[in-house]
């Protein structure tokens, strides 16, 4: 959900400047704030029973962070860790709800529908046994949040290792599959940077 920053500030929001590698919240914490990202990048992850990192999502410019949990009485199922120095707008849960009640033009239904659709698309590709389908699903998911929708216009700003963590396939398979996808003109590589 994207909310005008001036509106957030009028209801008591504050700006945080966070260096990379800091944690915003941890798995098991209770949600007490709405977060919006004007600058930087955040990783949502958790670790499986063997200690392997599973990346749920990478949030980029102007996305919000786990706001749906503010509406239910559940703990965060993920960690939020800053990947690049971030500017984050943070507003207390009570103030956020006051903002929503006084600004009925902010459509939670539309936002929720878009977010669920994107998650469904990501989940659908991750059940495939074909690595190219899984990778394309992840690339489509992140490109959908970007202003760059033309072919090869979206620069993939994460490593093959992160792609492997997001898709549940081995890093060697990701590397091999990306090379094959380049031959098939699905992606373009420039100095090892992927463009989709």
TrEMBL record:
InterPro entries: cNMP-bd_dom, cNMP-bd_dom_sf, HTH_CRP, RmlC-like_jellyroll, WH-like_DNA-bd_sf, WH_DNA-bd_sf. The keyword Kinase does not apply. Residues 129-196 form the HTH crp-type domain. It comes from Chryseobacterium kimseyorum. This is Crp/Fnr family transcriptional regulator. SUPFAM superfamilies: cAMP-binding domain-like (SSF51206), Winged helix' DNA-binding domain (SSF46785). Residues 22-106 form the Cyclic nucleotide-binding domain. Keywords: DNA-binding, Transcription, Transcription regulation. PROSITE patterns: CNMP_BINDING_3, HTH_CRP_2.
